[in-house]
Structure formats: C-alpha cells, structure tokens
Amino acid sequence: MDVHCENVRTLNVNVGIMGHVDCGKTSLARAISTHFSTASLDKHPQSIERGITIDLGFSSFMAPVEGSLFTLPYDQIQFTIVDCPGHASLIRTVLGGAHIIDIMLLVIDVNKGIQTQTAECLVVGELTANNLIVVLNKIDVIPSKLREVVVSNMQKRLSKAIKTTRFGDCKMVPVAACPGGADKMDVYGSPLGIDILVANLMALVSSAQKRLQGGDFLLAADHCFPVKGHGTVLTGTVLKGQCRVGDIVELPHLKLQKKVRSLQVFKRPVQTCAVGDRVGMCITQFDSKLFERGIVAAPGTVPSFIAAVVSAEKIRFFKGIVHSKMRYHVTVGYTTVMATAVFFKAPCHPASLATSAKSCEEGILFGSQDDIITSTCSTWALLRFDRPVTCPAGSKYVASRFDADIHKNSCRLAFHGRIIHPSVEDPASVKHIKVFTMKKRFGSVDRVHDVKTVIGKGMFKKETDMTIFQGLRVFTSRGEIGTIAGAFGKSGKFKVCLKDGVSPSDLKGNASRLILNYKHFLFGKEAGKQMKQ
C-alpha cells in the first residue's frame, strides 16, 4: 500500500498456520499471501538447506470490508499469516508463535489424517486460539472422481475428534495449496480452494477482533535486524496498548530504554500502532545482536522474576504423571525456561480470589501440597525457574516434557495456566506463599508426671527443636486432648498437659498412644520455624 494511504483504517487479524511436518503449511502461506516480511516463508538458511520450516514466518494479504463487517470501524482487513514449523523438535517455536494469533488454521494432509504433531498443534490451539479452521490440503493428489467421497469421509473422521475439543463444529475447507508440488505448479495450475478459505476467515473477523483494548503498551518482538543509516528494527505483534513515534519503550530483560524513531506496518510508514498490529519498530543506538526475541513494553511495566505462583491445569492428552518437584520446560511467550514445580490447591477459597495477586499478598493459605495434579480440580503451583523470566503478570504459559521421545505418538505438553504472582525473591523466603502439607506424628505415653501432665516419647528425635512444636494439640487414641508444653530432658521426650487431667489407669493399652496433626509450611518465613494446626 502507498504511504499516502496511511489514513485508511486497517484491522489486523493474526492467523497461525500449524500442522504436522510436510503437510503443506508454507505452501498454503505462500498461496494465500500477497505481502512478505523480512522473516517470511523459510528465509532462514537452515530452512532452505533442510527443506522444512524451522522458524516462524510472517506474510500478509488484504481484504475489503464487506457484508456484516461494514459495522466495524475499519476500511480494510489485513490478515497477517504466521507460518509455524511442524517438526516435533520445534514445538517450542510453535508455542512461541501461538500466543500472538487470533485464528488458527490447522493444516491436515487429507491423505493421512491426524498425525502426531497435528494432535499436538490442536492442543496448542485449544490453549491459545479462540477460533479454528481445519484445512484439508493436497486434495489434488486424489483422483477427481473419488475426491468428493474421500474428502467427505475424512471430514467425518476429523469431526469426531474435534468435537471433543472446545472448537466443536469448526469449519473444514479442502484445498490444494500447491497442485502437483512446487516443481509442477505451472503444469497443474493455480491453488484450489483458497477463495473459500478466505471467505471462512472473513466470517471469523468479528469475533477475532474482540481484543482487550487499552492498558500499557506491550509488543511481542520476534525478529531484530540492523538497517544501515537508520538504526535497529524490532518486528513483532502488539499484544496490548498502543505506541507512537517518539515514545520511550523498554526492553525489560536488558533493562534498556529507547526512543521510537519510526514505525512501519509491512513496509508502510505509520505514526502509531495499536493492539493486534504487526509492526516494525526502529530504535537507535542498539546492537541487534543483543536481542533475538522477547518483550518490548512501556517502561517499568514488565517484571523479571525467578519464581511465580501460577494457576495449573493438566492437559488431558498428556499421559504422564505430573508430580511435585519434577522439572518441566515452561514456555512463556517466546521464552522457554526449565523450572521445578510444586503443586497445591485452595479448597477454601473461590477461584476468583485464589487466582488474584491480592490473595497472595494477603497471605491466604492456598491449601495442602499435591503430589499429582488432575484436570478435575482447581490446582496452583509454585514454579522456580533456572534463570529469570521476563513477562507481564497474567501471561499464559505451557509446561512441557520436551525430553520425551519425539518419535513416540504421545503429547508432550503437560499442564498450562497463567502467571498469577511473579516473585523476584528467593522462593524459599517468599513471605506471601503460605503453602503447607499436612503432617502426622505418633508417640506414646512414657509415664504420668502429675495429675495434669504426662511424659511422651517416640514422637521426636533428640536433636529436634521442640520450641517449634510447643503449644500444639495432641490427642490420645481415646480422644483425650492435650498440649505440648515443651521438651523433657535431652533424649527427645516431651511434656503433654492434658486438658481434663488423667489417671494411670486411664492410660493403659491403646490409650497411651499420642497423635499429633500439624501443618508443615514449605516456603516463606514460617517454613521450618513454626508448625501450625
């Protein structure tokens, strides 16, 4: 588009193309696009060498505002195509691209159906996208007499699988993105079904454009390169807020602030960019080698942290066991970091409270630690990262086991949720995280000390600090209530004051057993220093 057309109101809709390796994703992106960015369609040298997509590719096409879309305050629709790699080893790149898309195109080879990465991409779509279109590619391979029947049968098969997801009865569009293959396209003619696919994309524009408006500026930058005589260009998708030429922005993980020299949308100069836009941002006096992918934001709005309380829900397709203290690959935006997880639940508090940062700040006890999380209960976790993570509170994350065998037909995405309360402190001393596990100790009455007091044994070791248990209630096996008064000697014995007193005849047999139930706190100032009930 010419520069003088800047006043044309353009709505940008981000469309992610995902699917199994070699199903024709890049061919589809090429067939549907008319404008190509500096990071489009397998421009990475290794993509050319290996013949597969290994990085995110960006391109676009324009469409006029028609029909029901006339009610929108825009003059044209720009569809930004995000071409995602399909190889199993590159799933973290797919996760990085997924958080910026509005509509997902799940490309399936009509002759093969759902394959391993098809299923994994469908899971990613469920977690990140609001709209889905299934694209049945390579219909040109099917003889024309059988094509309608084969496509119909595949649609029925896929419909059963997709109905189990939140996308329900999504549209399925048969296409041939590159008839006869790349080498024979001139012989076999133009792509098939693209017009129908575009029409289906247009039908989803109204729901796709319902983004959160306002807020502080936030850009997910995926590409960085120098331009001689101008500066360094960061390209990415605006996730929140807006930015104007001349504004100061921050690269939070580098702790650097820079002035915006200029803005472009697919090589078209603009003065401002807003949520949803695919934009190139030029800044000066910045070494492009310092930045590959990450966040650009309004100054002081995005923290870096080494731990976070998160909501956690197990992904139902993950067949492994999700244990506390296991390590996971946690993907937030374009960043994947190893983290150790501890899971817990908050049965006493409504989800609206337990998912807020305020609930953490007020020191609410979330509940007892879980060894395993399930998708049927509200579960939270403390993630302790191996290195600092930079992202806004509220960001979505996905935890995976990328160390699993990529050749096995199994989902590697384990659980997901949102960052609720990021913490810059050492997780062992975070005061607001009052997570506990219920503990039980058993002992017995050694002897009666007086009419109100007995001496207990067998519950503690001689080196145990008895002061942290002092004042806790104990019970006899018959239900009598007592209180630990303190240590008795240095052998691990202790005094118990019984509420209603006791006689030697009452403490025979099972009645001589002492039981202590208490909360053991895992983190914060109370961890290991004070037991509570």
From TrEMBL:
Gene3D superfamilies: P-loop containing nucleotide triphosphate hydrolases, Translation factors
Top-rank lineage group of the source organism: Eukaryota
PROSITE patterns referenced in this protein's UniProt entry, alphabetically: G_TR_2
SUPFAM superfamilies the record matches: P-loop containing nucleoside triphosphate hydrolases, Translation proteins
Coiled coil: none
GO biological process: selenocysteine incorporation
Pfam families for the chain: eEFSec_4th (PF21131), euk_SelB_III (PF21208), GTP_EFTU (PF00009)
GO molecular function terms noted in the UniProt entry: GTP binding; GTPase activity; translation elongation factor activity
Tr-type G domain ranges (all copies): 10-209
NCBIfam families hit by this protein: small_GTP
PANTHER family: ELONGATION FACTOR TU-RELATED, SELENOCYSTEINE-SPECIFIC ELONGATION FACTOR
Protein name: Predicted protein
Originating species: Micromonas pusilla (strain CCMP1545)
